[in-house]
Every structure is written in structure tokens, then in C-alpha cells.
Design a protein that fits this description.
The complex is a heterodimer of chains A (109) and B (114). Chain A contains no helices and 11 strands. With 109 residues, chain A is mostly beta strands. The chains are: A mainly beta (109), B mainly beta (114).
């Protein structure tokens, strides 16, 4: 069963922050975050493992609440290059990923 | 330092023909995953393979679809007797071994069935 992402879409001005949420009805062992631009391959952002800590990459960071089966991706001081569709992929012990429907982020100057 | 390679990038087939999609994983990676993406939707898992072995094919339609990853050469996703509903982008991803590792995606093959 695929995870649920929210919001479906968000529009930001450069420099603003945003949070994307991902929740699952199944116990999770890992959560993977990707960004995809139209017509291109998904680009790996980060992986969060059960029992692991919050991760960060430049001004993009993420957290993983195992008990709530949720993960959040934080976009801080957004840049134009952050525009795209963000997907969370959840893994429940079988190493294959179930992806959410995506959150479209548009950053405007 | 080549990434995941897929070919062809675009493939047009008439209904009833066969489609063969190829995926060469990143150097040093021995595990391959295939995903299908319909327009404006997320990625759907199809199959997980390591060399000469199918680990999980639970996302693969029971008929017309098959996948392999031979000892030598790329992984191949084969769709026989294609129908309009098979039109989609097919992505493969690779990881170094079994476990909770990041999966790196190829550029995808966009299949159009006319």
C-alpha cells in the first residue's frame, strides 16, 4: 500500500520554507526521498533508516518518526532549483519501495 | 563514473508487438529494480532482481511481462503483445547489494503504444 504525501502541491517564493509529509499504514524500516523534474529521472536526496537520526543535505533535511510511521522533508530557504516533484519511498522490510503520489513544489523568484 | 543507463530512451510500438527495455546498473551495483510511472503519478514497483535471480516480482503483471538480469549484460524488461495501457515511463534503479541502500535511477524509457 502506497504512502500518503501531503500537501499535493506548494508554491513558494525564493527564501521561504516548506514541509512535505509522508505517512504509511505499515511499519517502516526506511524512508527514501527523491526529487524529479518533468521528464527526468528521480534524483536521490536522502535515506532515513529505522533507529537512525535526522538527516540533512545542504538546506534540505528530513526526519523519521518510526512510531508514527511518518517522515517529513524540510526545505529551508528555498532556491529556484528546488522546484520539482518530491516523492517519498517507503520500505517495510522487503527492500522494495512504495512511492507516494508526489508533492509538486514550485519556487518563484 | 557512469550512472544507471537505460535504452532506448523512447520506444514506439504498435499494439501486439514486443517491447524490450534495457538497463545497465551503476558500476559495482548488482541489484536492479524496475518501476513504472504513468503521467502525473508516482512510481510503481514492478520487479527486483540480482544477477541471475528474481528476488521479488510481486509488482509485475502476471501475463505478458517478464524480466531478467543475466550474469553478463544488462537487465531486460520484456513486454509481449503490448496494449495501449502499457504506455508509460519505465525506470530502472540500482543498488550495490541487498539491504537498505539508496537506489539510483536511470533516465527511463518512455514507451508509447499506438
Amino acid at each position: 500500500q502506497q504512502p500518503v504525501q501531503s500537501p499535493q502541491a506548494v508554491i513558494l517564493r525564493e527564501g521561504e520554507d516548506a514541509v512535505i509529509n509522508c505517512s504509511s499504514s505499515k511499519a517502516l524500516y526506511s524512508v527514501h526521498w527523491y526529487r524529479q523534474k518533468h521528464g527526468e529521472a528521480p534524483i536521490f536526496l536522502m535515506i532515513l533508516l529505522k533507529g537512525g537520526e535526522q538527516k540533512g543535505h545542504d538546506k534540505i533535511s528530513a526526519s523519521f518518526n518510526e512510531k508514527k510511521q511518518q517522515s517529513s522533508l524540510y526545505l529551508t530557504a528555498s532556491q529556484l532549483s528546488y522546484s520539482g516533484t518530491y516523492f517519498c519511498g517507503t520500505e517495510s522490510g522487503d527492500y522494495k519501495l512504495s512511492f507516494g503520489a508526489g508533492t509538486t513544489v514550485t519556487v518563484r523568484a | 563514473n557512469a550512472g544507471v543507463m537505460q535504452n532506448p530512451r523512447h520506444l514506439v510500438r504498435r499494439r501486439g508487438q514486443e517491447a524490450r527495455l534495457r538497463c545497465s546498473p551503476m558500476k559495482g551495483h548488482s541489484h536492479v529494480y524496475w518501476y513504472r510511472q504513468l503521467p502525473e503519478e508516482g512510481l510503481k514497483f514492478m520487479v527486483y532482481l540480482q544477477k541471475e535471480n528474481i528476488i521479488d516480482e510481486s509488482g509485475m503483471p502476471k501475463e505478458r511481462f517478464s524480466a531478467e538480469f543475466p550474469k553478463e549484460g544488462p537487465s531486460i524488461l520484456r513486454i509481449q503483445q503490448v496494449v495501449r495501457g502499457d504506455s508509460a515511463a519505465y525506470f530502472c534503479a540500482s543498488s550495490p547489494e541487498m539491504g537498505r541502500y539508496e537506489q539510483y535511477f536511470g533516465p527511463g524509457t518512455r514507451l508509447t503504444v499506438t
